[in-house]
Design brief:
Helices cover 12% and strands 35% of the residues. It has nine helices and 44 strands. β35 and β36 form a beta hairpin.
Length: 669
């Protein structure tokens, strides 16, 4: 599909003047998750049949949920991506054999799946009760579903509602992580216990715990001291430098009344909140065991695209993940319990207390809506001032340099300046040129990763001669790889560089590093100055958050003649097949043609999840258009964010800003 169709679609959105909602800093984890049954009426874990009803969401996942091994999910379950139960996976959803025995009300849409629901075995839904399963995609697989209600396939899911909730939760989580710790923790009984205690009378007790304290070589107990009776317990769990949190070998947890395991008081678990605020990878237990105790309290993992592995025996509390979940322990269960602390968690200062919708009166609003993730509104006369790095900085105007490459989610610009999208989730050949540098050869490969309803370039690698340079998005340590050896952008004192500097070379070509912003950095492989037009010829890799872009600047026949791949043939950009003769009009077929094959150089350090022999699948166009419809970013705001982007890339930038709901995503251009 050509990007021009998306641009036209964006234009249509602008004329619709759809409503956008002000940020609603709802109490604690939000109204959708809040319990409707008071915590004093919940039961300890027991077997039997439903004794109470509650419509608060207990299990909320923004990405995909895959159950390799597991038993049950109790309560309301919402997964915005795909939901896949494999042959050894769970058996019950909604109503379970052992749990709080608090189930959703009868007849409700209490199991929501944004993508496809794939069952490889029989799954019983709302046993001895009634309820509906709402599926944005289709029900697939060889397994069947036990249900007394409706299965609604190809349903319209209100993704905007859930994504707004996740956006707000991320802001809240970051704020809660800044609160000063007043509670204390310590190792006791020869380090076999981790004890949390209050040292003052404040109703809110805040703890800050590094990930290594939640892992032990032997089984250990987590004890909530009696001083924490009737306290709001906020535990900020701090990830390691790689964004990883490991929870391993918890033998059991003890409430402030001395109860443990399935006797843990629901009124106590309702007071406990585990805030994994900065984690991108969370391993809860291990597939081999990693603990025998029930994990008590409510869990929030708010970082977008987080990867979570659930291998604990069970959890008692709300389970919220802004990413993907792999469930892989036999008998493991998500039990339905509320978060209802004695006092609400404090709201971030930037919260907008307005709960009513704000409707844009025109297609060109004169001021920004108050989203949590937009900059704080100022008294400036020009909204573009909000986008500059500092009040005194003058943004650089667009240059006359020519760029060809791939960026965003992802968009391609061929040598012939044709723009197209290909969302294939696999490794792809951006360009290949055996004659580059007097026969040393050049290959550039990209690796696309799925994110919700679209994909993006996660990693890129280039080979010149016998040397390989690789860069990945989402890299907190500013690391890159040369010939599979990790390199760090730091000086001899361990301090990060901020100015332009040469950090290495590949087959004699310097690699220059520039820190563009807190979220973005740039690596430039300098080919040299073209003597004909005095312009710099270079290959530029740029990162923004998890995204990577690759652009070839001012290419010449001297270096790029004979290039093929997703950028087409140089210099006309003809979409050629590998045979050098066949041409393509269908972008999907063209993209599949340039999936990396097993016979080609292996440029990436790590093997991808999609093998060369696997099909390079793509998210559906319908889902991606649906994502745009749900965008809370207006066309006016997107245009302002992309003001300083090269004209030829402007429409691509606008698309990405609206698709990601983030004005800073223009930083990838």
């Amino acid at each position: 599909m050509r990007i021009t169709s998306y641009v036209a679609f964006i234009g249509a959105l602008a004329s619709s003047r759809f409503s956008v909602y002000a940020s609603r800093c709802e109490e604690n984890l939000g109204d959708a998750v809040a319990n409707t049954l008071d915590k004093t009426e919940w039961f300890k874990i027991t077997q039997g049949y439903p004794r109470g009803r509650d419509d608060g969401v207990n299990f909320l996942v923004a990405g995909d949920y895959t159950c390799q091994a597991g038993a049950e999910i109790e309560g309301v379950a919402v997964t915005l991506g795909n939901f896949h139960v494999k042959k050894n996976g769970l058996s019950n959803v909604g109503v379970v054999g052992a749990g709080s025995q608090v189930a959703p009300n009868d007849g409700k849409d209490s199991w929501i799946v944004g993508g496809d629901l794939t069952l490889d075995k029989f799954v019983d839904y709302m046993s001895r009760s009634t309820g509906n399963v709402v599926i944005g995609g289709q029900k697939k697989g060889t397994g069947s579903l036990g249900i007394n209600g409706l299965i609604k396939e190809n349903a319209s899911i209100n993704f905007k509602k859930w994504r707004n909730l996740f956006d707000n939760l991320k802001v809240k989580s970051d704020y809660w992580a800044t609160l000063q710790a007043n509670g204390v923790w310590k190792r006791a009984n020869g380090y076999d216990n981790l004890v949390f205690s209050a040292v003052d009378d404040n109703e809110l007790q805040v703890f800050s715990v590094p990930t290594e304290k939640l892992t032990h070589t032997n089984g250990f107990w987590v004890v909530f001291d009696k001083s924490l009776k009737d306290k709001t317990i906020l535990i900020n769990v701090n990830a390691d430098i790689d964004g990883v949190v490991n929870v391993k070998n918890i033998a059991d947890m003890v409430d402030p009344y001395g109860n443990q395991h399935w006797s843990f008081e629901p009124k106590s678990s309702a007071n406990i909140f585990w805030n994994f605020h900065d984690a991108t990878t969370v391993n809860l237990g291990t597939a081999q065991g990693g603990g025998s105790g029930e994990f008590q309290g409510n869990i929030l993992i708010p970082t977008p695209d987080a990867e979570v592995r659930m291998s604990l025996p069970g959890t008692s509390g709300r389970f919220i993940v802004n990413g993907n979940v792999l469930h892989d322990r036999k008998g493991s269960e998500f039990h339905n319990y509320p978060f209802q602390p004695p006092s609400p968690l404090p709201r971030p200062p930037q919260c907008d207390e307005t709960s009513s919708p704000i409707v844009s009166p025109t297609d060109s609003p004169t001021e920004f809506p108050t989203y949590l993730y937009l900059p704080t509104k100022t008294t400036t006369d020009s909204p573009t001032d909000l986008l500059t790095k500092s009040p005194t900085e003058s943004p650089t105007k667009k240059t006359n340099d020519k760029f060809f490459g791939a960026s965003g989610d992802p968009h391609f610009m061929t040598w012939g300046k044709e723009k197209f999208d290909f969302h294939g989730i696999c490794d792809l050949v951006l360009l290949s040129n055996p004659s580059f540098d007097n026969g040393n050869g050049l290959d550039i490969h990209i690796r696309n990763k799925k994110m919700r309803m679209w994909s993006y370039i996660e990693t890129a690698a280039i080979r010149i001669g016998d040397n390989i340079f690789e860069v990945a998005g989402g890299n907190k340590k500013d690391e890159f790889w040369i010939n599979r050896v990790v390199q760090s952008v730091k000086n001899n004192n361990g301090e990060k560089f901020s100015d332009d500097i040469v950090v290495g070379n590949i087959s004699g070509y310097n690699i220059e590093f520039t820190r563009v912003s807190e979220k973005s950095c740039k690596y430039v492989i300098d080919i040299g100055i073209n003597q004909d037009n005095n312009k710099r010829e270079a290959i530029i890799f740029k990162t923004w958050h998890s995204f990577v872009s690759i652009n070839v600047q001012n290419p010449t026949k001297e270096y790029f003649n004979g290039s093929v791949g997703l950028l087409g043939s140089f210099p006309l950009g003809v979409k050629l097949a590998r045979d050098g003769k066949t041409t393509f009009e269908d972008i999907s077929v063209f993209g599949q043609e340039w999936q990396v094959q097993s016979s080609e150089p292996k440029l990436f350090l790590k093997t991808g999840s999609v093998k060369p022999s696997d099909k390079c699948s793509s998210p559906s166009n319908l889902d991606m258009r649906r994502r745009l419809v749900e965008s809370e970013m207006t066309l006016k705001e997107a245009k302002i964010a992309c003001t300083y982007v090269d004209d030829e890339m402007m429409d691509l930038c606008i698309f990405d800003v609206m698709a990601t709901n983030d004005i800073s995503s223009s930083g990838i251009y």
